[in-house]
Design a protein that fits this description.
about 260 residues, 8 helices, alpha+beta
Length: about 260
């Protein structure tokens, strides 16, 4: 449904406001029926290490001297529905990850230095002007210690950075979005511990119901400090466990991914 509003009190041309409201469940059902992938509200946290090659050599890009590079990346990421985290670049970071190691694409130092930030995804980028009219950036995204690499080129650094973020988000969407191919509902039982009062119970129930792939939540069993929920989901166990893993509400407590604990607010 939509609402159109125009100011008719003045004769000269005026700005017009258009108010639009979507029926999210109905829209999601239609998209699933057409096999269109859906990406839920839970998005991975993304840590970005960016370095540049300039007259002074290779160095990290930070907000103070980065020629607006990080702001360009943040703006593009926001338009694509994800948020970026940038390292502090303090003495700890400098000692853990040298620019030369980042530029060389050494995996272990990148993963080790990123551990303090507890991000779901690590993005590294190295940007330089290869010839006067061409900028180039080499990218790598690390998910569960596995790396994917790509390169972007353009006549301006902003173009190269925008395309780098687009490549990142496209990769994440292909990995984390519900493929939309499975329209069948499946049931998944999960056990949530550290639920001791009504507020914690309500918080857990509301969170599970908010997950994009969850069609319904039922309480199967209540025990002291522990509740077993039965979820009706699209896509099965993998989809729901992946969505929960990206959030900050429940934490897995077992290798089978069916047992969780409610994290403090």
């Amino acid at each position: 449904q939509y609402r159109y509003q125009k100011d008719t009190s003045r004769s000269e041309p005026q700005a017009m406001n258009l108010w639009v409201q979507f029926d999210e469940p109905a829209l999601n059902d239609i998209m699933r029926n057409y096999g269109i992938p859906l990406w839920g509200k839970e998005r991975p946290s993304i840590l970005v290490w960016l370095a540049s090659q300039g007259p002074e050599g290779r160095q990290y890009v930070n907000p103070e001297d980065g020629a607006g590079y990080l702001r360009v990346m943040e703006k593009r990421a926001q338009s694509r529905g994800v948020a970026l985290i940038f390292p502090l670049l303090d003495l700890v970071d400098s000692a853990s990850l040298k620019v030369s190691d980042l530029w060389a694409g050494f995996r272990e130092p990148v993963i080790s230095a990123s551990g303090r930030y507890q991000a779901d995804v690590i993005l590294t980028g190295m940007i330089e002007q290869v010839i006067p009219s061409v900028w180039e950036a080499r990218w790598a995204v690390y998910i569960n210690d596995q790396a994917t690499n790509w390169t972007t080129e353009g006549d301006l650094p902003e173009v190269v950075l925008d395309e780098g973020i687009d490549g990142l988000v496209d990769h994440l969407a292909s990995r984390f979005a519900d493929s939309g191919g499975d329209v069948q509902e499946n049931t998944v039982d999960i056990i949530v511990s550290d639920v001791f009062n009504l507020d914690q119970y309500a918080r857990t129930l509301k969170y599970l119901a908010s997950l994009n792939s969850v069609m319904g939540v039922n309480v199967k069993r209540v025990e002291p400090g522990q509740v077993t929920f039965q979820l009706r989901v699209h896509g099965g166990e993998m989809v729901i466990t992946q969505a929960i893993a990206l959030g900050r509400t429940l934490e897995s407590t077992a290798a089978d991914n069916y047992s969780y604990r409610l994290m403090p607010e």
